[in-house]
Structures
1.
Amino acid sequence: CGTHKMNLFQSITSALDNTLASDPTAVIFGEDVAFGGVFRCTVGLRDKYGKDRVFNTPLCEQGIVGFGIGAAVAGATAIAEIQFADYIYPAFDQIVNEAAKYRYRSGNLFDCGSLTIRAPWGCVGHGSLYHSQSPEAFFAHCPGIKVVIPRSPVQAKGLLLSCIADKNPCIFFEPKILYRAAVEQVPEEPYIIPLSQAEILQEGSDVTLVAWGTQIHVMKEVAAMAQEKLGVSCEVIDLQTILPWDTETICKSVVKTGRLLISHEAPITGGFAAEISSTVQEECFLNLEAPISRVCGYDTPFPHIFEPFYIPDKWKCFEAIKKMINY
């Protein structure tokens, strides 16, 4: 089947286009999606499929998700967009207390499993407090939903189509700095990449590096630096699904390497790295050669001019690897 050069936002558009074409119940809604969205992810879809299927909502995240739950319960494939992940909090109650619990509460008589919530996520170079956040850890504490974060156009399309097909409500966070940065050959036809499966991007023997979204690209650079400067062989793993996460792939890798570095942009305290770290410590204690290392954002609001100091860049990660190797 044919592939096209696509950046990340175009691969999202392609996935949404495939869904609207193949599923007559599919609807897409959110703030400004009718004219294509602030990041152009829904460009051309209203003209192609009509204003009953791709439409704007009021500026009300609680309402967007509440409406999405109702649409999904009634049988529609509901794809809700939250304009920035930072603005998902007004919808928190709807996601955590309604969407995540709907099936359980009704003893599986009803569910909103056909709901998918998309939101641009992560740092972008100039987003400051309200356009830079990575809120995945808030939702990782909530059984009943799935949380997924892609690193590139090919992954974005396959994982988004998996979320849309999945019989549970899913949150799909899109690394906004990559919307235009990453370009790949992406199949035009629909395809899926399974959820809850981490991907080993590079095999290695000395240290396991775990990340997701934008940070994967930092980890790949760090792995190259460690090899070149220290002769250290790094295994790089993209977690891809935050909830339910792939414990097996991570633990197998740590048994082999004996060292683990986890890195994310979100603040370190209570970040998802902590969950991975405690699980690995329980499962692989006697295999560890050094304490597990977390290189994350600081416990402050996301800064504006200090963003370069805040983000867990390759130098911070490189220092952490040196420390582990010399432990």
Note: The radius of gyration is 20 Å.
2.
Amino acid sequence: MAFYRVSPFRYGSLSSLIPYVSSPSSLSPPVRTFTLSASISTPHPSPPSLLTASPKASDRWRPMCLYYTQGKCTKMDDPTHLETFNHNCSRELQVNAANFQHLQSQHLDFFLVLDLEGKIEILEFPVLMINAKTMDVVDLFHRFVRPSEMSEQRINEYIEGKYGKLGVDRVWHDTSIPFKEVIQQFEAWLTQHHLWTKEMGGRLDQAAFVTCGNWDLKTKVPQQCKVSKMKLPPYFMEWINLKDVYLNFYKRRATGMMTMMKELQIPLLGSHHLGIDDTKNIARVLQRMLADGALLQITARRNADSPENVEFLFKNRIRQQGSLSLYLHRVFPEKMASIWEVTHH
């Protein structure tokens, strides 16, 4: 059974109907493979935009159904719902490999684009799986995460401030699960795609995480694992910081996703600071860099014996925040979290 409420979205005058799910479905949504058809624009060195094909009326931008991304949409037979919401996460990521004149052979088969949300505790865990050779979207993993150390009142206040303005606070409350469960489902998803097995020592197989900065995997995931009283999963031992690759490839500094998109003239789609939308936008920057001829390599790696120690592999890289900022985050975590939410990316 599903109910509706009206919720405002950021773009245009759209008012969208969000289905309230009263009975969660399966553990994980089925694997979805997408057919891509649009094209990349002018090749390296400076194409004006990643996507230039004129969209059809039926392909207008629509917000993702955030129940669907988590395998919990009960309205797939409702024409109004299908017309209002997007159920294809590759819609903004359509490319045509035939137009890639500068595409380099990558050392990896897949890129896992990840962009966490939540400064105090992780609130959203989205991952887009991109084929390194074709740049196609292979699949999406997306979960909202319920904090384990906050009171219900604090959670409600935090989510209202974080997601209420985006109109997705209801779906967060309906679908969020503890971080431990998210990791269990994520590992099942990795195994389903043959990217990881415990028998292989826990490392990813021919795949790597791609992040916009080091914070997600260097800082936040270990913090959350400690809060959730669990060991750091071994597949979080290395990653690609897109900022560092961008700096070394284009020879110019970009402090975050918005800067990279502006410089590459890629329009922002969706809601900034909604993790799934930011992940898709970071993936669009990744696609553009691949089309321009960038070679993506691991930029950071943990010490196997002392995982808290991270080696940064690029000599030229975007430096982390200063000691004063780190001190303020430790002493005033909630106040700094509010500031961080505004300035992140």
Note: The first strand starts at residue 2 and ends at 8.
3.
Amino acid sequence: MERINSTLLTAFILTGIPYPLRLRTLFFVFFLLIYILTQLGNLLILITVWADPRLHARPMYIFLGVLSVIDMGISSIIVPRLMMNFTLGVKPIPFGGCVAQLYFYHFLGSTQCFLYTLMAYDRYLAICQPLRYPVLMTAKLSALLVAGAWMAGSIHGALQAILTFRLPYCGPNQVDYFFCDIPAVLRLACADTAVNELVTFVDIGVVVASCFSLILLSYIQIIQAILRIHTADGRRRAFSTCGAHVTVVTVYYVPCAFIYLRPETNSPLDGAAALVPTAITPFLNPLIYTLRNQEVKLALKRMLRSPRTPSEV
């Protein structure tokens, strides 16, 4: 009978993040602004890369444009649903909606991990092998690498979604989290989750550890190469180009490792940590890449000035 009842579950209730009721409106407005600015900031990056021929022909900025698409996607998957927790009434998420949210989050999240690795490799080639860089990192190769990252991310997301929702869920249906993620959903399963937890730990652990190790190795070589640059201006430009990527990678990987690569606990810090890759990082990426990247800032200035050029001439 329990097995029959497990098929009757049609929705989950996301409890959201704990907050004082008197701050309900403030939190709603805060995350609404975060969401709007995230979409506008990443859209601006996309338009700038696409409109400036000096940028969209270079692999580094192709990767940056793809990163903006991913950030817009992750924010759209998570933040609007999070904002619903700051409105009146209980708003359940359909079972299929929960499956889709978990799949797309892990699909885009793992694709982002692979993309960060490609960006580090691109910087390694540009700084450590500058003469061979145009031959080694062509536009065709960068497009193939991006396609491979999307494919690998899709497989990873599908694997995690299938493994999570193959289990029976017979109630309760209250997910103690602000979105459908693996650890929170697995706590509601009416079956042994040991295999799922092991596969999740190994799968995500391999993705995170391998990507982070490759990024680390790339930047060890990059730092050694930068220190060999004789001019202070050259060193400053190299550090400026790489500094944005290092900042973003650090902000992204630390909370992900905290959530997925430690013994199972139901800590209130999990929700706070999860806000970083789901809401804060997509918001910060455009700021980091525009404030710390001189080429993007110059492209933005050229784009903003271009409408006035005909009249000036």
Note: The domain at 11-299 is CATH 1.20.1070.10 (Rhopdopsin 7-helix transmembrane proteins).
